[in-house]
Design goal:
The structure is a single chain. This protein is mainly alpha-helical. The protein is built from four helices and two strands, in the order H-H-E-E-H-H. Strands 1-2 form a two-stranded antiparallel sheet. The longest helix has 17 residues.
Length: about 120
């Protein structure tokens, strides 16, 4: 049975993915985090990765009152409304980052694992 996605995991392990994962964990222990730049997008209706979504209305309930510098009704919750590119801790987890780096398709891995289980069950093992 051909398992190219699972083969990629084996190759990633041989290339040192465990060491990279341990390094990422160590960074967290040191108080360091992997970050990515924020880009403002005032058009999002719902929370989406990398998109602005915290609603803000210019009214009497605005926490900044008359000194509010926000120009749109829908802005990000980063409170960094004056410039793009501010770094924030990535929401992508360690496994997702490693899989992306090593070119591993998580859906393909799951399909191959299920196929292996189905074959084992069909063989009566």
């Amino acid at each position: 049975m051909s398992t190219p996605a699972l083969d990629k995991i084996r190759e990633a392990n041989e290339r040192g993915s465990q060491a990279v994962a341990e390094f990422i964990d160590w960074l967290g222990e040191q108080g360091l985090h992997i970050a990515e730049p924020h880009t403002h997008s005032n058009t999002a209706e719902t929370p989406e990765e990398g998109k602005c979504w915290a609603p803000h209305r210019h009214d009497d309930n605005c926490p900044w009152g008359r000194s509010c510098k926000l120009k749109a009704d829908l802005v990000c919750g980063m409170l960094s409304y004056e410039k793009n590119g501010v770094l924030y801790t990535t929401s992508r987890g360690k496994d997702k980052l490693l899989n992306t780096f090593f070119g591993i398709d998580e859906d393909a891995v799951e399909r191959e694992r299920r196929a292996i289980l189905d074959n084992l069950q069909a063989d009566g093992r």
